[in-house]
Structures are given as structure tokens and as C-alpha cells.
Fold each of these.
Amino acid sequence: MIRTVFNNGKYIKYEHHGVEVIVRKDLKGKHRESCLCYECSLLMSPCPIAKDLFALDKKYHIVTPVFECPDFREERLLDER
Ligand code: SF4
């Protein structure tokens, strides 16, 4: 539920897992479509980078999509082996 709008609607504040967070309105809910991890075959391996990042996200109530990663491996590449 959106509670507050800032800067003529550029940012919104809403409750996420019980904590009020602020997000750019145009990026709200876009994490999955921009994060490499959701297209990476290593995510469930489990990936130590993603595990550490998720722990940080939980600790500070932040959302951190991965845009660049040296270990990214697209699922399709595994099928080609
Ligand atoms: S290897 Fe990189 S892209 Fe793949 S799950 Fe881990 S952090 Fe995400």
C-alpha cells in the first residue's frame, strides 16, 4: 500500500515485508525483470554472491538487482554442453 508520494510522484513510500521503504516509482516492482540472477543457472547452485547480497538486502531492507556479474551463466549455455 502506497502511503506517501515525494517530488511530484518521482518517489513513493510503501510497506515492504513490514518495513516502510522508499522507491523510485518507475522502478517499483522491476527488480525481477532487470536482475541477471533470475536468468542465471547458478542462482540455485546456490550462488555465494547472490546469497550474500540477499542477506544484505534482508538486513537493511533494500532491493539490489544485479546488473553486472563476472560469473553469470545463462541457462541455455548449460543445455549446449
Ligand atoms: S553468478 Fe552472478 S548473476 Fe548468477 S546468481 Fe550469482 S550473482 Fe547472480
Note: The helical segments are 31-34, 48-60, 75-79.
Amino acid sequence: MTVTPVDEIIAARADLTREQLIPLLQEIQEHEGCVSPAAMLQVAQALETPVSRVYGVATFYNQFRFAPLNEHVIEVCRGTACHVKQSLTLAQHLRRRLKLRADGNSADGRYTVVTVACLGACSIAPVIKLDGEFSGHLTVEKLDTLLDEVEAGAAAAA
Ligand code: FES
């Protein structure tokens, strides 16, 4: 039987109890980039609890992802200041342009878009973070320019 990284994370925890469900899921996501259905099943078996409970907890908290992050990660702020400055328009534009699936990953497998409550840069709303870099006072046109630069960089590197 193959020992998976998730098996190792579970095995490393002494005195495993159901109270450790959330920290366990956090550690798995930190290591694996997401909490996969297989990982949820392993956790359920280890905690001797129904997988539906693990799934219920994991989906209740929006900190958990169920698909791995792609090469480029875009965090779209949906906090109040950004909302007032039309961040929804930016999110909708990204969904159309990148053909996002329900899990936030683009159809071409290159981008992941996640929404966050506040990026802590309200004075330059609306804000996104693209691969860790802040971009503020965004418009759809500026967003397209940023994405075009990413594409140009990828083309130059190919
Ligand atoms: S609400 Fe968007 S950075 Fe604070």
C-alpha cells in the first residue's frame, strides 16, 4: 500500500481527535495546495467520522480549496471599499475573459481566481493581487493590460 503525504500528515498527529478536523484540513491544504476528495475520505476514516461531516466543515469555511492553484493566482478583493468601487465588474470580467470554472480555475489551466474579504489596501480600491503583487485603482482596461502583460511574458519565455 502506498503511503501518501496526507497519510503522513495524519500519522504525525498524536492523539487524533475530531476536534483536530480543521487544523488537519489546514495542514493538508498547506502541503497539497487544496483539500481533495480523496484527502477528505482519508481524514474521515482517520477520525472515524462520516465523510459528509468532513465535507460539510470544509465547505463551510471559505479558506478551503478543493482544486489545486494554477500558475497565476489572482485575488480579487470583494470587501466593502472595493465593492463600492465596482470590484464585482472586475470579477465578472475575469470570469468571462479567463472562462473560469466553478472552482475558480481558468479553462486553460493557467489561472486561479479567488475572492477575498479585504486585502488591506482599501485606499487604492478596487484592488487585486496578481501573483502576490497589488494593483489598485483598477478598471477593466487596466486589468486587461495586466493580463496582457502576463500573456506577453509567457509568450516571450516560450
Ligand atoms: S476592501 Fe478591498 S482592500 Fe479593503
Note: The beta strands are 72-77, 111-116, 128-130, 133-135.
